[in-house]
Amino acid sequence: MKKYFKQAIAALRTQPLVCWVSIAGTALAIFMIMTAVMMEEIQIAPYAPESNRDRWLVQNAASIRNDNWDEGSEGNGGMGYNFIRKVFYEMETPEAVTATDYSSEGLLSDPSGTAFGAKVLGVDNGFWKVMDFTFIDGKPFDKGEFEAGTPLAVLSESIARRLFGTTEAAGREFSINHLPYRVKGVVRDVSTLANYAYSEVWVPYTSTNSASFSWSEYMGCLHAIILPKSKADIPKVREEYKKRMAKFEEEAKVNGWSFLQRERPYDQETAVNTPWANMGPDMDSVRRRRYFTWAILLLVPAVNLSSMTHSRLSRRREEIGVKRAFGARRSSILTDLFVENLIITLIAGIIGLILSVLFATFGAEYVFSAQSSTGVVTNVSPAMLLSWKTFGLAMLFCLILNILSVSLPAWQAARTNVVNALAGKK
Rounded distance, CA 60 to CA 277, Å? Predict the structure, then answer.
């Protein structure tokens, strides 16, 4: 391997322009691909406080119809408290279950009467088990406080400072939409990319009208997340969900209602790629589009890099001729050229990966705004973007790019006639 590194360094020194143009082209290709990959991974990969995404089963909505409606008519939207209570809260197999409403803008007032707007999310006591927030003061509200609808709030550290000038705010009082609330705890700020966990204030949804809001007895403004104990338990959780759903449907049929399941609940990847409640998932189509995009992003630069590689190898025709004259096999020459080019490609890949992380970190507002629950990106850390999977994909793309770009030029170089090669001819 040391020999190949020496050959790669020698190539960089003897043909600096061609080699560095090749590296720049490869780095740009990896940069574009990795940015595309991170835009997808940031929605799926686990990171705090959504560290258990790989185990989640998510149900953002339900679909319902009534016997009195026209054929084909249906209602789609959030679930009501009755639905959540009888299906999700009675489940015994999962480690935890949570239901939340949809984040809204609330008017917060500090003790002096100064008011400002902030994101408020209604959650239940299970929310703090499904998510892994870091509490810097106080603690979350418990089951009894949730069921009683006690007006308590957990604040982000930024909101706590804005309200009270300190993060040590547990027990202090303020108001949300002119209603009194007491601070139960304070947590670290959450990235807006954590779409289910993100808010600035978290309150029991039983202290708002989210629990009482309902239409058709079963529909409302809630969505749910189930956390199985392990990935191996996911089939068991799905089986229990089906049984409880079947029992719930029997009750609903008495009043003329029926549900369209659409394969719910979904894992995190399926939930992200199934945004409409009136349509079921089509992950095969999603993955085909993803792989097609990656293929285009690989093939276009590979064609250009193949030309650059051919030009670089053409200038080394005499060297290849000497190796052939001294008995080097074609397979040995091919291996040398492949490994040498792979080292150069890996150098470019690492540069491209670093560029993509730097751009995503400092240009997050532009890159990830579509994935943010608010359209504005905050609190993006390298730990959220970097993972062994991301790094492994970068190296895999480097390998594929190397194979695509060097295959034909290396094969042609290895088959060059010895006499012509020594003379510098084709």
Answer: 8
